[in-house]
Amino acid sequence: MCHVIVTCRSMLWTLLSIVVAFAELIAFMSADWLIGKAKPSSSEDVDNRTGGSQEPYHPTLGIYGRCTRISHMQFSRRDTLCGPYAENFNEIASGFWQATAIFLAVGIMILCAVAFVSVFTMCVQSIMKKSIFNVCGLLQGIAGLFLILGLILYPAGWGCQKAISYCGPYASAYKLGDCSLGWAFYTAIGGTILTFICAVFSAQAEIATSSDKVQEEIEEGKNLICLL
Known about the structure:
By secondary structure, the protein is an alpha+beta fold. The chain has a single domain, classed as Butyryl-CoA Dehydrogenase, subunit A, domain 3, CATH 1.20.140. The protein contains 6 helices and 9 strands; from the N terminus they run βαββββαββααβααβ. It has a 5-stranded antiparallel β-sheet. The longest helix is centred in the last third of the chain and has 27 residues, at 183-209.
C-alpha cells in the first residue's frame, strides 16, 4: 500500500532539488556568461525622442550563444539579437568550453532526473530496500562534482579568439581582459553550492520520513501522513 508521507524537511529538499535543476539549466542556456567591453554609440545611434545618443552597448557571450546589437539602417534603429553562434558542438569557440559544456550538461541531466524523482518520494521512499533520498543525495553529489569541473575549465577558454573579440587583446586563460562576468556564471556557481546543500539535506529528508512518528501513523492505518 502506498503511504503519502509529507514532512517539512522532505518537502524543502524536493523544492530545492527542483530549483537547483532549473537554475543550472537556465544558466547553461544563457548567453550572459561574459559581458563584453562597451561598444560606443556612433553618430547614427540617436534617440529620436530625446535627441541624445544612446548608452554604449555591452554584447554578451555564453558557452555556445551570444547576444549582440544589429543595425536596421532603413529604420535607423538597432535591435538586440540573441542566439547560438555555434551550429554544432565542434564550432564551440574553445576546447575548454566544449569540455565545460559536456561536464555541465551531464551534471544538469543528473539534477533534472533527481528533481523528477524527488516529486514521487512523497509516495515511494525506497526501491529494492535502498532509500531514494540517499540515492538521490549521492547523485546530487556526483552532479555537483561535474558542475565544479565545468566551472573550473570555463575560465581556461577566455583566451580563445571568440572571447578576445569580445574582451579585447588582453584577455587570456583566467584573465577577463575588458570583460566582466555575467549573471549566468554566478547563477551556475550558486546552483553548484546549492547542489551540495541538497545532497547533504537529503539525509535529513530520509530521517524525517522514517521517524518514529511516521511509523506510528502508518501502524494506525493512515495513508496520508503530514508532519512538521
